[in-house]
User: What shape does this take?
Amino acid sequence: MNTDQNGGVLSFGFWVLSWAFGIRRRGERECLPTRNSEFGTRNPELPTPTPRAPTQNSKPKTQNWRRLLGVLAPAALAPLAPAAEVSFVRDVAPIVVKRCISCHGERKDSGSLRLHTFEQMMRGGSNGAAIEPGHADKSEFFARITATAEDERMPFEDDALTPAQIALVKNWIEQGAKFDGPDRKLALKSMLGPREHPAAPDVYRLSVPVLAVALAPGCREVAVGGYHEVTIWDTTTGRLARRLGHLPQRIQTLAFSHDGRQLLVGGGTPGDYGELTLLDAASGQKIRVLDTFDDVVLSAVFRADGQRIAAGAADQTVRVYDAADGRRLWNMKLHSDWVTGVSFSADNRFVASASKDKTVKIYAEETGELFTAYNGHNQMIGTYAGQNPVYNVKFTADPAVAVSAGKGAWIQIWEPEKARDENGTAADMENRFAKKGHARYLEHGFKQEVFALAVSGGQVFAASADGGVKQFDLATMKEVRAYVGHHDWVYALDCDAAANRLVTAGYDGEVRIWDTTSGACLATFRAAPGLAAK
Assistant: This one.
């Protein structure tokens, strides 16, 4: 029991004894209000109460005090209950994630101190151990969050932790700094579980950038990413059908299951949080949150048969799940930058991931083991030299062929098996540079980078930052047509060759529905509920 608790017990105990026996501390004033006291002055016009004489049934006051003391004193003098057990995952980790890891995380380590995992937190920094289990007064971490000097207190140049937060940290350290999570090496963010998201605005005052679209099977509806929601629109009329809310702030990727009953939603808050959720496409009810990430989810897809799901995020991870029960089957972190696109091969052998690190990686779908890396977007010499980030990758219906694009003048078509053979080993590097690779290069003619790709029916559809959308034939490697109408960056597209429909969307919030047989624009609308009516 600490000193404050003992003092409180003794003080309360003395108060009980004083009240019972009329004892007062030296210099203590009478407890009852008197004339001109701080409680006010008695009205002189009121009669002064006359003390009542003892009645026949009255008992001496001493017996009353003894009886009262018998009830109150034991409770007053008993030790106070110890502080409730503090959970690291429930109580402390959220404070560290919200207030500390922006300066002491995986990417930034002020003072050589990292706090993004429990293991790193206990390791300490340049000043030694940050936490001394059982001794808050000897812990550098606690000293910094309670410092009074502005240049010493943490968080630096930010609001101090609240007294309640400081108390939680102190009690946790005093109780031994116990860890109650699944893995000391796991990022603290991933232990906190899914977040509760607010509702979307009833009426949008402005258009928001559309970063994701998905055509429902049959192409009667299109799902569009919004602000904390997905909006569903009629592709014929361009009218809003329904809204699926309470989702992450930014929606980066959407995909319907092959039967159209489920909608896969990926997004989050850039630099802070990512989430992958499976919804009932009709009601918007959450079937399950598949996973949370350390950064925003940028790409997610169903396998063609709907049995598996792949996702890639800005935290550099690629993950695969069982679509039926949501189990994570594997998780790989081989990229050195954002994972911008993922795709399953048609024969279910491979998962491909594109990245800002200028590579595409191919994994064995069953195990996640790296099969090969394609480096065609990162060439130092030759006709197609360039060091360019890759923003998307898709497999064609031919299971051996992948299509990738990003910054640079070409859409690249290549085969994982041949890419692995061409990679060889460090011993034959000189010969590899001298050989001509197998990849084909389709010059797209955009003035800026390609943000989105769709492959359907032997056709490749590409959307660019210059506002252009084009269709190419894979067999002839020629442009089929350009879809003209957008006036801002086009971030997202989806295509259904069987239904002859293409949907495109851009930064200005405009969504367009196209007929792929004629190139005609069938519908145009702003995916901002209520904006047009204002």
